[in-house]
Design a protein that fits this description.
Elements (H helix, E strand, L loop, with lengths): L1 H14 L6 E3 L1 H11 L1 H16 L2 H4 L4 E18 L5 E23 L3 H67 L5 H35 L9 E3 L12 H11 L1 H21 L5 E14 L9 E14 L7 H67 L5 H35 L9
Parallel strand pairs: 1-4
Antiparallel strand pairs: 2-3, 3-5, 5-6
Helix pairs in contact: 2-5, 3-5, 5-6, 5-8, 5-10, 7-9, 8-9, 9-10
Length: 441
């Protein structure tokens, strides 16, 4: 009776939190993570900065207009000698000047460098969008993997609870037979040892469940990382995927690494255009509108003051005739950089194709393992039921029953692992082909 009472208290303890927990679907987990995750917030701000920079003014297309004002003065002692050797001296001669004006500077043409710079800024804007998408995909992949790991840990908890109930039933039978003298104390002690071992595994599994939910709460950036909740999913089910050719076509058009590689190649091409723009002349406009006041000491000048108000303008046309052959060298290096970016892109495609093939094979193999382990689990359950019946009849030893029980638990664990590995393969295939939005449907 004492053992039965302890078991009931233990079961209530490990099961009680479930009655007060809310549930979340994979869509709710992903939506919360995308709204609250700090990495996503940061990368979105960085994208906003790239958007702000993609303007004609930042590229240099628009003129600059400055308002400036100034004051200057001089206090001098002057000695003068004329051609006929006449000497004149002046002391404390004060001259003053003040000005205020608007200055306009505008590069009208510089060999298409401005247009190239604007195209570069737009490329950086697009790269910011791709990097934001990459961060979102990584978060979705991590959240989805951890969500189904949480499902797996809860299923393992359920299996271990069932294992504890089986050990308890065996202990009840041994205890009853020991009390009537049909079983030895050794049988009773072994049953207790096995029961305690299963209880210990159950306690440790509660730690794994708690660690998984904390990891999910951290990824979702919940204020209370210890918040307890249960997943809506009660099983890990693999979704059907397109064939490998279809996945590869999606990869070529949607993979974020490939998209970033294409943007980097475009940037190298724009670098070459920026260098080539120096092969052309440049034309600049400058203009000024302002007011100038000069005050003169009457002892040393014919004027007491002078005012100027007006508009001044000018054009500058120039062309670099020789720059030490640096322009030619930079163009050659820019072309080499473009070639390297093209080869890097081809290397990335080859790597992605290999990864896709490996992931597809792993996914298919785990599907086969899942089906095989499902059959094994049915056989293990039937085997345990037969063993338990024989044990009740006294036709089977406790060690043999324990072996049947362990075989059942191991079959359940292998099936869970195969299901989880299949889901991880599915997540990886969807990520590499740029289709993780599937989990929002």
């Amino acid at each position: 009776m004492r053992i039965r009472f302890i078991f009931i208290l233990f079961t209530l303890f490990v099961s009680f939190p479930a009655f007060s927990q809310t549930t979340y679907s994979i869509q709710q987990v992903l939506q919360t993570g995308l709204e609250r995750n700090f990495d996503i917030r940061i990368v979105r701000n960085e994208q906003q900065a790239a958007d702000n920079n993609a303007t004609w003014g930042n590229a240099g297309m628009l003129p600059t207009l400055d308002l400036n004002a100034g004051y200057s003065g001089s206090l001098l002692n002057i000695d003068q000698q004329t051609a006929n050797q006449t000497t004149q001296s002046y002391s404390n001669i004060l001259n003053q000047g003040a000005n205020v004006g608007l200055n306009l500077n505008w590069t009208i043409f510089d060999g298409f460098r401005i247009q190239t710079e604007y195209a570069r800024l737009k490329q950086f804007q697009q790269m910011g969008e791709i990097q934001t998408r990459m961060a979102i995909e990584n978060l979705i992949a991590n959240l989805t993997a951890e969500y189904y790991n949480y499902v797996r840990q809860n299923l393992r908890l359920k299996n271990l609870k069932y294992a504890v109930s089986l050990s308890r039933e065996r202990l009840r039978i041994v205890e009853a037979r020991y009390n009537i003298g049909s079983m030895s104390r050794l049988d009773l002690q072994q049953a207790r040892v096995d029961f305690n071992a299963d209880c210990s595994s159950l306690i440790k599994q509660n730690e794994a469940v708690n660690s998984s939910v904390i990891a999910l709460n951290q990824l979702m950036a919940l204020e209370n990382v210890s918040q307890q909740w249960l997943p809506n999913d009660t099983a890990i089910v693999a979704n059907p995927l397109p064939d490998q050719n279809a996945l590869w076509e999606k990869t070529l058009t949607s993979n974020t690494q490939l998209l970033l590689s294409e943007q980097n190649k475009s940037l190298s091409q724009l670098d070459l255009k920026a260098i080539q723009s120096r092969n052309f002349p440049y034309l600049k406009l400058n203009a000024n509108y302002g007011y100038t006041l000069n005050l003169y000491d009457t002892d040393n000048s014919n004027f007491a003051k002078q005012n100027q108000l007006g508009f001044a303008y000018g054009f500058t046309l120039g062309y670099n005739l020789f720059d030490g052959l640096n322009r030619r060298r930079e163009q050659k290096n820019a072309k080499i950089a473009i070639q390297n970016k093209e080869w890097t892109q081809e290397k990335l495609k080859l790597s992605l194709n290999a990864d896709l093939s490996n992931l597809r094979m792993i996914y298919n193999n785990n599907l086969k393992l899942k089906n095989l382990e499902s059959e094994n689990l049915e056989a293990a359950r039937e085997n345990y039921e037969i063993a338990m019946e024989r044990y009740r009849l006294g036709d089977l030893s406790g060690i043999e029953l324990r072996e049947a029980q362990n075989s059942l638990l191991e079959a359940e664990e292998r099936l869970l692992q195969a299901q989880f590995n299949t889901k991880l393969g599915e997540i990886s295939l969807l990520q590499i082909s740029g289709q993780l939005s599937f989990y929002f449907e």
